[in-house]
Amino acid sequence: MANSALLVMDVQWDVVDIADDGSGYLPRLRRAIDGARAASIPVIYVVMRLPAGDSQASARSKVIANVVRAGLFAEGAPGTEIHPEVAPEPGDVVVTKRRASAFSGSDLDLVLRARDIDSLVLAGIATSAVVLSTACRAIDLDLGLTVLADACLDTDPELHRVVTENLFPLWGDVLTVEEWLDAIAPR
Question: 165: which residues sit within 8 A by CB, 6+ positions away?
Fold first, then answer.
């Protein structure tokens, strides 16, 4: 896993407030982040930020229209900040995206190529949005893929289960945080 990076996606105040189910998600994600750092695996944070009133939003995009209407992800709004329990540290990269995928409207591909990263470890909220969209793009880019199932969260637990148990295993490895930490632990 020398050329891997952990993507921590959309773990922003507003999103955590909506999705956190009280299952210990943030401490589990914190363990993954700390484990990545201990194994010298880069941690890349991905946040969604949209211009106020998003003049870039197409009326054809139901998802973005709903997000803008709800006031989520507006640039400068306090709810767009990364949750402090999993906040970046100096040296971590923060990438801003404009749509569901971590690659959409961001410089993530450039960041990965500049660091010679060829494998991604995905974590974030929501499984059926940023994680799924990013996984789709990653496999199209021939990137290796690991999904940390319990470091992903969705407002629909059944959808999370179906995607992590039935779809993601076709594309890459699906592990728990503990399984991944065991795999990357220095021997």
Answer: 174
